[in-house]
Every structure is written in structure tokens, then in C-alpha cells.
Here is the input.
Amino acid sequence: MDAVFPPPQPQGLARILGWGRLRFTLGLTVLLGLLISLGWKSGLPSILLRTVTLGLLALLAFGLFEAWPRRLPAWLARWALQVLGVALVMPLGTYLIYILSTPAGAPPFWQVQDRLTGFVSLSAVGLLLAPWVALAALVRQKDALARHQALAFDLERSEFERQALDARLRLLQAQVEPHFLFNTLANVRELVDTGSPRASAVLGSLIAYLQAAVPRLHAASATLAQELELARAYLEVMHMRMPDRLSFDLQAEEAALPLSCPPMTLLTLVENAVRHGIDPSEQGGRIDVRVLVREGRCHAEVVDTGVGLGETGGGGTGLANLQERLRLAFGPHARLELQALEPHGVRAELVFPARRGGA
Here is the structure.
């Protein structure tokens, strides 16, 4: 199974100054600058330059301590380091701004009352707002990570469930092989044991049939056209074994031929009709196979005039296996029904969604 990994994250400066973070920082600092400018004596450009610069410095600190240092002491949480770093940037960044904006030869800003007031006000606003903004960003980041992890878990669980269904389906199809092959070979052995002159012809037909059938046993799905071909080949083999006791007919609408179904679907119904209907009957009987499409659903019907449900129960492991494979392939949208016929016989009807092969 392909492991589910988080999407690749940008590294270095691209991560620190990601467009989403940068856009949020610029928007917030411009808004803050507009509000402070109402009482700022140096004008709007001056305060906007200061607030945007402080915001970018805080963003750099937030992103830097997100990954550096790589290992922290046990007593220091990374989120606390990020919040502390953002808080410290406010007075330090403001101090640097005022130092750099002091003209050459002018007195330092702390000796000018208006500039000192501006420094204190800007530092105080930054210390009050920046840590809370950083905390809010961390909470949002944690929520996004939790949502991603939940999604990754759901995807991984779905993949496990799909693989479990595939494994279950392969196991059931593997069980079809011995069930079908041993039953068919047992029929040939009966002819050999009784010295029937038809044994060689039946064995030849069986070999030709198995050459076509065995490669499909492991296929994920088959078309109804393939299923009808296999069912006809099987019935021809059975007819050679008991020509006076078995007759059959297969009919299907053109629209049904390309539809998809689990491998051995029709063959299981036909084999069940032979084994539990025709074989136990002294008179034998007839098997009719009909496949048609109605209102987006495929209806496959196998009718036999054998001994009926009362004698044998009408089925065995083959039908139980088929029902399980249908459930795995179509979920609750497929059903298999057995109905006793008068005076004797069984009607097996299979209904499932009409899906084209490979769809």
C-alpha cells in the first residue's frame, strides 16, 4: 500500500514568508497603522512603515523559531519559544527602527519627548497584540494539522478496507477453483470408472474448456459475454456425460453482454443447477439461462427442471461463495434469490447493477 504522507512543505525563507502568512501580516499591520495614525503626529506614511516593518520582523521570528533550534530542552515548548520570540521582537524592533530613523547629528530619540512617547506607545501596542496574534496563528495551525491528520487517517483506513476487500475477494475466487475443478473432474472419473466410450470425448472437451476458463479464475471481473461462453462450454461437457438426461438453452440481450460481474457468476448458478437439480433426478431435466437488462439493472436467470429445493436444499458452498463475492463487488445493490417451481425445479435469479466491463 502506498503510505499517506502530508503534502510537501516549503522550506527555509519560502516557508517563513509564505504567501498566506505574508498576506495576513501585511493586512493586519496596515490596519493597525491606520488606527494608530489617528493620533500619530508624524503622519500616515511614517506609522505605516513602522507597523509593517514590525509585523515583518515578528513574522521572521515566528517562522525562525518554528524550526530552529532543531532540539529544545524538555522544559521549553516550541510554541512558547515562538510566542516569546515574537514578543521580544516588538521592543527590540521598535528600538532599531527609531535608531535608524534618527538623522545624523540629531539627539537620540529618548531625549526627544515626542519620539520617546512614540517609541513607548508603539512598543506597548506591539507587546499587547503580537503574542496573542502568534497564539491565534498557532492554534489555527494546530487545527489545520489535526484536520490533515484526520483526513490522512481516513484515507489510510479506506485503503486498508479496500485491500481487505480485495484480499477477501481473491480468497473467495481461489476457493472457486478447487470447488469447480474437482466437481468437474469427478464427473469425468465416473465415466472412466464405468468404461463409458464417451470418457475420451468428454475429457477432450473438458481440457478445451479449462484452457479457456482457468486464465479467468484470477481476473478481477468478467463480462457476461465471457460468463455465457463458459456456461455454454460447461453445459456442453455435462451434456456429453449425460446426453439423454440434460438439455439446455442460453439466451442474452445484446445490451447485457458487455456488462461486468465477478468471475464464475453464471457458471456457479449453472453448475449448481446441474449438481443439485439435474444430477439427482432420474429423469434428468432442462436448464435455461436468460440474461437481460431492465432499468439499469442486470437480471440473470437460471431455471432448471430438476428435483427442486425439497430434495437438496437447492445449493451449497458454491452459492454461499457467490453471494459473498457479489456483496464484495456490488455491496447491498445485488441480490440472489432461489424459488421452487411446480411441479419440480428451481429458478435462481441474480440481480445486480448494470456496469460495463472496466467501469
Residues 12-158 form one domain. The two ends are 22 Å apart (CA to CA). The first helix runs from residue 12 to 16. Confidence is low (pLDDT under 50) at residues 1-8.
